[in-house]
C-alpha cells in the first residue's frame, strides 16, 4: 500500500518552519508565539512536529493583552493545547497595554517586550511568529498610505533579531486549511473584525476592492514588492553605514560633526540616511525624528544660504559651520 503524505497545506507549513529553523544548533529551544488564531495555531502545530525531528526543543508562548473579557481564560486554553502539540514549556505572558501611539501600536509594543523578556529568561534563541503573506500585504498598504518611505514599504522581515516569520510566503488560506486538516479549532479574535482598527479596515475593505478591480494576486504582488523593497533598503543602509564612517569627523561629548564636502557627493537617499543616523547618534529619539526633520537638516547641505540652526527632537540642533555639519544638544535645551 502506497504511503500517503500529509495534506498539502500541512506539508507547506511544516516545510516553511523547517527552513526557518535550519541554522539553529541541536538542543536549542524555539518558541512559537500563539494567540489561538489559525495562523499561529498552524505555526505551533508545525513547530511541535518539525523541531524535535531536527534535534531542537520547542515551546509555546501566548500573550494575554487583558483587552477583552475572558482573555485570561482564552490564553490558558491556548497553552493547554501545547501538550497535544508536543510543545514544552508553554506559558501565558500577561501584559498591560498602554495608550501611546494608539491601541494597535501599544498592544504590539507590550507583546514584543513580553516575548523578548521570556526568550531571555528561557534562553531561547528564536521566537516564531505566524504572520502570513496576507499580513505582509496589509503592512505594505499601510506603509504606502502613510508615505513612510522604502523601509516601511519593505514590510515585515522574515528574520529580525529573535523573531522569525516562516509564513510570509504563504497565504492565510493555507494556515486555515492546515488547521482543518489537523483537526485543530482556531479561535477567531473579535479584534480581527473590529473596524476601529486600521488594519482590520484594510483587510475587510481595501484588499477585497483591489482584488475585485485589479484581479487576483494583489496580496502576492504586494508581498513580492516588500521583498524587493527590503533588499533595496538593506543595500542603501549598508552604503549609508560606510558613508557615515567617511563623513564623520568627530564625536566629542555626544556632538557629531560631519564633513559637508563628503555629504555633497552622496545620492539623496544615502545622504539622508547618513543624516538620520548622525542625528540619532547625537541623541535624537528615533521615533520622534521624522522625514521632515531630516529634510530640514539636508537643506543645510544642499541648499545652504546661511540659514540658522535646525531644531531636532531631543533638544538637538543641527548647525552648518566652516564646511562642517554639527549635530549636538542645544545649550538652551
Automatic annotation (TrEMBL):
Record-linked SUPFAM superfamilies: Adenine nucleotide alpha hydrolases-like, MesJ substrate recognition domain-like
This protein's record includes keyword Lipoprotein: no
Start and end residues of each tRNA(Ile)-lysidine/2-thiocytidine synthase N-terminal domain: 30-205
Entry's localization field: Cytoplasm
Enzyme superclass (EC): ligase
Chief localisation class: cytoplasm
Its EC number(s): 6.3.4.19
Domain tRNA(Ile)-lysidine synthase substrate-binding: 258-325
Residues noted as binding ATP in the record, renumbered to the chain: 35-40
Keywords: ATP-binding, Cytoplasm, Ligase, Nucleotide-binding, tRNA processing
GO process terms (BP): tRNA modification
Record's GO cellular component terms: cytoplasm
Catalytic activity: cytidine(34) in tRNA(Ile2) + L-lysine + ATP = lysidine(34) in tRNA(Ile2) + AMP + diphosphate + H(+)
Pfam families, sorted: ATP_bind_3 (PF01171), TilS (PF09179)
GO molecular function, one term: tRNA(Ile)-lysidine synthase activity
Function text: Ligates lysine onto the cytidine present at position 34 of the AUA codon-specific tRNA(Ile) that contains the anticodon CAU, in an ATP-dependent manner. Cytidine is converted to lysidine, thus changing the amino acid specificity of the tRNA from methionine to isoleucine.
Domain observations: The N-terminal region contains the highly conserved SGGXDS motif, predicted to be a P-loop motif involved in ATP binding.
NCBIfam families with a match to the protein in the record: lysidine_TilS_N
Protein family per UniProt: Belongs to the tRNA(Ile)-lysidine synthase family.
Name listed for the protein in its UniProt record: tRNA(Ile)-lysidine synthase
Amino acid at each position: 500500500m502506497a504511503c500517503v503524505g500529509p495534506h498539502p497545506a500541512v506539508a507547506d507549513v511544516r516545510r516553511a518552519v523547517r527552513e526557518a529553523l535550519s541554522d539553529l544548533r541541536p538542543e536549542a529551544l524555539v518558541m512559537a508565539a500563539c494567540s489561538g488564531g489559525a495562523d499561529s495555531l498552524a505555526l505551533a502545530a508545525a513547530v511541535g512536529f518539525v523541531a524535535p525531528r531536527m534535534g531542537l526543543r520547542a515551546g509555546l508562548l501566548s500573550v494575554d493583552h487583558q483587552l477583552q473579557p475572558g482573555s485570561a481564560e482564552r490564553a490558558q486554553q491556548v497553552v493547554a493545547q501545547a501538550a497535544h502539540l508536543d510543545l514544552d514549556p508553554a506559558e501565558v505572558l500577561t501584559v498591560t497595554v498602554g495608550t501611546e501611539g494608539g491601541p494597535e501600536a501599544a498592544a504590539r509594543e507590550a507583546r514584543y517586550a513580553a516575548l523578548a523578556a521570556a526568550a531571555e529568561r528561557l534562553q531561547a534563541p528564536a521566537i516564531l511568529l505566524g504572520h502570513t503573506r496576507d499580513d505582509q500585504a496589509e503592512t505594505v498598504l499601510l506603509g504606502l498610505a502613510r508615505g513612510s518611505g522604502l523601509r516601511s514599504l519593505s514590510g515585515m522581515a522574515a528574520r529580525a533579531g529573535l523573531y522569525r516569520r516562516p509564513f510570509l510566503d504563504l497565504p492565510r488560506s493555507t494556515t486555515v486549511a492546515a488547521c482543518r486538516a489537523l483537526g485543530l479549532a482556531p479561535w477567531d479574535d473579535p479584534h480581527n473584525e473590529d473596524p476601529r482598527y486600521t488594519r482590520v479596515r484594510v483587510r475587510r475593505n481595501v484588499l477585497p476592492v483591489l482584488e475585485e478591480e485589479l484581479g487576483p494576486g494583489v496580496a502576492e504582488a504586494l508581498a513580492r514588492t516588500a521583498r524587493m523593497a527590503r533588499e533595496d533598503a538593506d543595500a542603501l543602509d549598508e552604503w549609508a553605514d560606510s558613508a557615515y564612517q567617511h563623513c564623520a569627523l568627530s564625536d566629542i561629548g555626544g556632538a557629531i560633526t560631519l564633513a559637508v564636502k563628503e555629504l555633497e557627493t552622496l545620492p539623496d537617499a544615502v545622504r539622508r540616511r547618513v543624516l538620520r543616523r548622525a542625528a540619532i547618534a547625537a541623541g535624537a529619539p528615533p521615533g520622534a525624528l521624522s522625514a521632515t526633520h531630516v529634510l530640514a537638516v539636508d537643506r543645510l547641505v544642499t541648499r545652504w544660504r546661511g540659514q540658522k540652526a535646525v531644531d531636532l527632537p531631543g533638544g538637538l540642533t543641527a548647525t552648518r559651520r566652516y564646511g562642517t555639519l554639527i549635530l549636538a544638544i542645544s545649550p538652551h535645551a
